[in-house]
Write a structure and sequence with these properties.
- This protein is α+β, with helices and mostly antiparallel strands.
- 16% of the residues lie in helices and 26% in strands.
- It contains 3 helices and 9 strands.
- The strands form 2 sheets. Strands 2, 3, 4, 5, 6, 7 and 8 form a 7-stranded antiparallel sheet that branches.
- The two termini are 24 Å apart.
Length: 197
């Protein structure tokens, strides 16, 4: 994942990086041993569904760090209790998103999102925008401006199989509008369909 995002950051423009991201994610889902696609469906996996790139949903926003102290502990089943600390907030034209710090093992910035499209065109539990411990990083610096491109929102692994347990967006990561961008609702294993809507 980290090498994929390095290629995305090095792309000639964000839309070209988005194309690389789509191809890279589809390859990982089809070939990686830890893919959330069940092994019996990987050979027939044709790709995920994505919305077309929308440049109006890419932001470089300062992280406002004047936030009250807050911690959440997420029980993941596979990794035990995973602690997160609120470190700031980004204010976007579409709504505000809390910025969390993964306060264990590798550490990293975590920005999940649940918007009004969740449960319809997007996974009902929400999606991830940034998860730097896994290399999902579009650039920027939390001490300055963070790149928050909602076109790169993706479903957590638990969207594909019950064998994964994932942190889902808390209330401060809920947007009041529908974000038709990024990875869309997962299909039943064996019915994945590549393409952009």
């Amino acid at each position: 994942m980290a090498s994929l995002y390095r290629e995305v950051r090095a792309a000639s423009d964000p839309a070209a990086g988005h194309e690389l991201w789509i191809r890279g994610r589809d390859t990982l889902f089809r070939e990686h041993p830890a893919s959330p696609i069940p092994p019996e469906h990987r050979a027939s996996f044709a790709g995920l569904s994505y919305a077309r790139y929308d440049p109006s949903l890419r932001f470089e926003a300062p992280v406002e760090t004047d936030v009250p102290p807050e911690w959440i502990d997420v029980s993941t089943g596979t990794d035990g209790i995973v602690p997160f600390q609120l470190i700031g907030r980004v204010r976007l034209p579409v709504g505000d998103l809390d910025v969390w710090w993964l306060d264990s093992y590798g550490g990293g910035i975590f920005v999940p999102m649940k918007d009004a499209s969740c449960g319809a065109s997007a996974y009902g539990g929400g999606r991830y925008v940034l998860d730097t411990v896994k290399g999902a990083d579009l650039g920027g610096d939390p001490a300055a401006d963070l790149v928050v491109d909602l076109n790169f929102a993706y479903n957590p692994s638990c969207a594909y199989t019950e064998s994964w347990a994932c942190p889902l967006p808390p209330p401060g990561n809920t947007l009041p509008v529908a974000i038709r961008a990024g990875e869309l609702v997962p299909r039943t294993p064996g019915e994945e369909k590549s393409g952009m809507l």
